[in-house]
Amino acid sequence: MKKILTLCLLLALPLLGMAQRPTLDREQLLKDVEVLSADAMQGRQSGSEGSKKAQAYLLKRFRQVGLKPFGESYKQHFRIESKRLTVEQATNLVGYIPGSSEKAIVVTAHYDHVGQRDGQIYNGADDNASGVSALLAAAAYFAQHKPTHTLIFAALDGEELGLQGAKAFLENPPVPLQHILLNVNMDMLSINDKGELYASGAHHNPQLKPYLGQVKPLPHAKLVLGHDLPEQGHDDWTAQSDHYPFHRRGIPYIYFGVEDHPHYHQPTDDYAQVNKTFYPDAAALVLDFIQRMDANAAVLEMKE
Domains in the chain, start-ordered, CATH in brackets? Predict the structure, then answer.
C-alpha cells in the first residue's frame, strides 16, 4: 500500500506545479489607461491639479478593487526638491491585500508624468498609466484570490523627478524593511509592435530567473530577459525606474517594461498609441509572475 501511495504522489508531482493561469479584466485595464492618460489629467505632473485628479481616480479604484489602507489613509505625503521642480506635497498611494504571512511583496508603478510643455499635454499613456493600470488589475485579481504573502500595491509619485516616490516609500515603509521580500516594478508596458515585454533584473537576482522562465508566452506578448548588465551603459535599466531604490537596499526586484519607442516623453504618448492586443497580454504576464513568486515562499525567504 505504501508503494502504491508513493507512486501516486510521484505521478501527481507534475500536476502540482500546473496552477491555473491567472486572468485579468482586459476591458477595465484599458479603461483605466484611457482615463489616466486623458487630457483632463494634464499630464499628471507631481504637485499639479492634474496629479490631484489622478489621485482621486486612483483612490476610487483602490477602494473598488478591495485594497486596504495602512491606517486611516492610502496617502503617503512627502516633499520633493529637485533641479527641475520643488513639490511641497507629493503623494504616494499605498494599499495592501493581507496574506497568511507577514512577509511582503511590493508591487510598484509610478502614476506621475511630465505634465505640460509649450502648450502641449504629455499624457503619458505608456509612461506610466499602463503600469498603474496593470497594478490595479493585479490588485483586483488577488483581492479575489487570497495570496500567501501580504501584497503591497504602491502607486508612486515623483518618479520623473528622480525616483522620489520610491525613496520616500522606503524611508517610511508601511511594514519593516526586513519583511519586504521582493519588488515587482512596472514602467511602460503597452507599446511594442514585436510583442516583447522585458523582465530586467535577473542578472542581479539570479534566484528569480527560473520563475521568469516558467511564465509562458501569450498570443500577443512574451517575456524577454535583459537590460540589466553594467556594461550595457544606457541600455542597462538597473537605475532607471522605481525598482532602483529597492535594489540599493538589497531587496530583490524584477522590472517589467518595453524598450523606448518614438512616443517616449513625447506629447504623442497617448491612449491612441496603446497596443490594445499586446498590452493586456503583457499585463497578464506580470500577473503570472507575481502569482508564481507569491506561491514560492522558499526562494523569496532564502538568505544570500
Answer: 33-298 (3.40.630.10)
Average of per-residue pLDDT across 231-247: 97
**Distance (Å, whole) CA 304 – CA 301:** 9
- Alpha-carbon span 210 to 173, nearest angstrom: 29
Mean of the per-residue pLDDT values for the chain? 93
- Looking at the DSSP bridge assignments, the partners of residue 105 are 151, 182
- Whole-angstrom CA distances from 165 to 97, 170, 213 are 21, 9, 30
In degrees and rounded to multiples of 5, residue 114 shows phi and psi of -100, 0
Q: In terms of C-beta density within 10 A (0-12 exposed, 13-18 middle, 19 or more buried), how is residue 204 classed? A: middle
For residue 228, is pLDDT > 50?
yes
The CA distance from 87 to 245, in Å, is 20
Report, as an integer, the average pLDDT of 2-13: 38
- Phi-psi group of 79: left, alpha or beta (phi > 0 → left; psi -120 to 50 → alpha; rest → beta): beta
Using CB atoms within 10 Å of the CB of residue 13, give its burial: 0 to 12 exposed, 13 to 18 middle, 19+ buried: exposed
Judge contact between 136 and 215, C-beta under 8 A: no
- Rounded to 10 deg, the angle between the 49-65 and 130-144 helix axes is 20
